[in-house]
Amino acid sequence: MHILIVEDEKQLAKLLRRVLTEERHVVDVAHEGYEGLNLALSDSYDLVILDRMLPEMEGLEICRQMRQSKVKAVVLMLTARGSVEDRVSGLNSGADDYLTKPFAMTEFLARVNALLRRRDRDSEASNILQVGDLSLDLVRHEVQREGRVIELTAKEFALLEFLMRHPGQALTRSQITDQVWRYDLDAISNVVDIYIHYLREKIDNGFPRPLVKTVRGIGYKLEA
Fold first, then answer.
1. Quick check: pTM over 0.85?
2. Does the bond joining 210 to the residue before it have cis omega, within 30 degrees of 0?
3. Is the model's pLDDT at 51 over the cut of 80?
C-alpha cells in the first residue's frame, strides 16, 4: 500500500518508515504541516499517519482539510495528548483511529493493518493501479496492457508498482533502490538501469506509446 507519514520527530518518522517498508509498503515522509497537507491532498495514499502537533499546521487541521477535499485515505493520528477530549477531537476531525505516544510497534502495526483491511473492504478498486492503458492488480499479482497479460518477475513487479504509485513523478535511482531493493547496491550500481530495461522490453516493446521515460540527470518516470 502507499502510505504517507507526517511526523516532525525525524527519528520516529525514520523508524516508522523502516518498519512499514519492511512490510512491503511504499512510504513517503513529510516533517512539516504544509508539506504534509500538500502531499495528502494529492489523494494518492491509502493511509496517512498523522502527528497531531506539527510545525506550521496542526494535524487536526490537515485532517479536516483532507475530509473537506474528499480525500479517501484512512487516517491514523499519533499524539502525545491522550485525554478523552483529545481523542474525541481527533476522531471528530475525520481521523479513523487514534494512537497515543509512546506506543508499542506491535500495536502500531496491528492498527495499520486493521485500517488497511477496512479500506480494502470499502473499495476493491484500491487493489488496481492504472496508468494509461497499463493496469496492475495487487491482489492477483497481474499486469495487463491493452488487455494483454504481461509476465513479470517479483522484482520487476515491485519496480513497476513503485513507478505506478508515483505517475508522472521523476524518481531518482536512489529513491527506486531504497524502495525496491532496500539494501546497499554499490557493487551493482546499475541495477536500476538494468531492470528499467527489462520493464521496457515487457511493457513498452510492441506498443505504440512508451510509458517508461528517462528523465535526464534525474532518473525515470512512468507517464501515459
1. no
2. no
3. yes
